[in-house]
Design goal:
By secondary structure, this protein is an alpha/beta fold. The chain has helices spanning about 1-20, 30-35, 60-65, 70-80, 105-125, 135-145, 155, 185-195; strands at about 40-45, 50-55, 90-95, 130, 160-165, 170-175. It has a six-stranded mixed β-sheet with strand order 1-3-2-4-6-5, with helices on both faces.
Length: about 200
């Protein structure tokens, strides 16, 4: 276990170092101009649950921590609602640098950053991946050979999918709305809190 522990820590540090020097990213220059950090991920390297968002916002890029702004406060409440401690899960995004003006990540940015996420999944080996928002839902479903099950997030949120393609262990994928989508929409917020109840069966 301790050897594996050092291994996981080392492998995740390697990813962090590579991202710090990720000069081929179109977002690298924007990061350095604004003294931003890449947002690699945070949490337990042995997490049962891995939460994957889309791309960091301003608060995240300033601190290097995922989900630390308004959407992060909602995520904290969601975790609390099902008695899951934030430090017990692993939280990351597909794109690890902030896109300009909080715009949606471009397909080529997702393609460029996705291999880092793939490695994080292989290292941490979560039992459950919760995708937050439609970009991470689309990427993860396709990556795990579930493209044929893809539908709009308004249909797929809170549904359960299982796959072991791409990894050597079975993994459950649960698409959910992005917490940011609930800031101005109380109906989405209610649905997200309901969807989170599903996680209790994996505790």
């Amino acid at each position: 276990m301790s050897n594996d522990h050092e291994n996981r820590d080392e492998q995740l540090k390697t990813i962090r170092d590579e991202l710090l020097n990720f000069t081929q990213s179109p977002l690298y220059e924007y990061r350095t101009q604004n003294n931003y950090f890449p947002v690699v991920g945070q949490g337990n390297h042995y997490a049962t649950f891995m939460f994957i968002g889309e791309a960091p916002g301003k608060n995240e890029a300033q601190t290097g921590r995922p989900f630390c702004g308004a959407a992060g406060k909602i995520l904290d409440k969601l975790l609390e609602s099902v008695q899951i401690k934030r430090e017990d899960v692993y939280i990351t995004n597909i794109v690890k640098d902030r896109p300009q003006n909080n715009r949606d990540p471009e397909p080529e940015e997702i393609e460029l950053y996705a291999p880092f996420l793939d490695r994080q999944i292989e290292i941490i080996k979560p039992k459950v991946i919760v995708t937050l928002g439609r970009f991470s839902m689309a990427y993860i479903m396709k990556r795990f050979g579930l493209a044929h099950e893809l539908k709009p997030i308004s249909t797929l949120h809170g549904t359960i999918h299982t796959s072991s393609s791409f990894v050597s262990f079975p993994i459950t994928i649960i698409p959910m709305y992005h917490p940011a989508a609930t800031i101005y929409n109380s109906q989405t917020k209610e649905q997200l809190f309901n969807d989170f109840q599903i996680l209790k069966k994996y505790l």
